[in-house]
Each structure stands twice: as C-alpha cells, then as structure tokens.
Design goal:
single chain, about 170 residues, alpha+beta, Glutaredoxin, five-stranded mixed sheet, four-stranded antiparallel sheet, about 25% helix
C-alpha cells in the first residue's frame, strides 16, 4: 500500500509504503538487528512500555539530536520503559555512532535487511528506502498508544507530546 501527501523532505513530497498505524492498533511484530548483529523482535521487549523513535539516518543532524534527546530521556525512565531507535543504518554504522556519541541507554536497531519494520509500521519512504521520522509508543500489551509521523522530515518530532502520553502509561 502506498500513501502520498503525508510527508516531505525539504519540501519535496515523498511516498510512504505500508498502512498507517494509529493509536489503538495492535503493534506489528518486527525482526531487527542490533549493533552486534543479534536479531531483536517485539517479543524481546515483552512486559515493557516501548518508546520507538524512528530516524531516517543517524548520521544526519536532526537524527543525531533526536537519538540524543531520547537517550537522555531514557535515563529518567523506570525499568518498565525501554526506548528503541530504529533506522536502516547498517549495524556497523550503529555501533560506531553509538560509541562516538555515548548512546548507552537506547536500544539502537537496524531495519536494513528487508525494511519490514518500515512497511509494517507504514513509515518506509519509497523514493529513498529510508524510514520516515516518527515516534510510536507501545504499551505493555503491545497496543499502540501514540503514533506520530513527522510531516517534514527535516524537522524534529514532538518530543513533549510523546512524553505526555508515556507518563499516562507509567
């Protein structure tokens, strides 16, 4: 399924692949790679509230800001909350980026293989094979409680809006 008129990058319209995910939907499963090439699935975070920060590429200024913001936020959360960052960056690049940027509280994952996360969550950018900047909050029962796809990809997400919803779940 292709969706248009939802996002732009530098003002140019882009196409998203996959169905829109909304609050109240069951969170689609995923299989992603961590920086050590281990597969991580939704079930690996069972019983936790999952804050999923999605970035097009860690090596861009806005993505760098976004992952650092969530890494700092992770330090303020209880053990019931896990913060994930998902991009299509290669696991080797993720490992280098996290080491250089002191990203140590966020679970950073790669969707580079099959971009199944991107298509299942409706955030795969057809023209670029990148993921659209977005935030999803998934409760302990794997139900989406917050979904935000940033309309202009060079803008930061609404961090405070996401944290407001997170606070209602903790």
């Amino acid at each position: 399924m292709e969706r248009t008129g939802i996002i732009t990058m530098n003002g140019s319209a882009l196409t998203l692949i996959g169905q829109e995910i909304k609050a109240g939907d069951k969170a689609p499963d995923f299989a992603l790679l961590d920086a050590n090439l281990a597969v991580k699935e939704l079930k690996d975070f069972s019983g936790k509230i999952k804050v999923i920060s999605v970035t097009p590429s860690l090596d861009t200024p806005v993505c760098d800001i976004q992952i650092h913001w969530f890494n700092e936020e992770a330090a303020r959360q209880t053990e019931d909350v896990v913060i994930l960052n998902i991009s299509v960056d290669l696991p080797f690049a993720i490992k280098r980026f996290c080491a250089a940027g002191n990203i140590d509280r966020t679970v950073v994952l790669s969707d580079h293989r099959e971009v199944l996360f991107g298509s299942r969550y409706g955030v795969l950018i057809k023209e670029l094979r990148l993921l659209a900047r977005s935030i999803f909050i998934v409760d302990k029962d794997d139900v989406i409680r917050y979904a935000q796809v940033v309309s202009e990809q060079t803008n930061e997400p609404d961090y405070e809006g996401a944290i407001k919803v997170l606070k209602t779940l903790v």
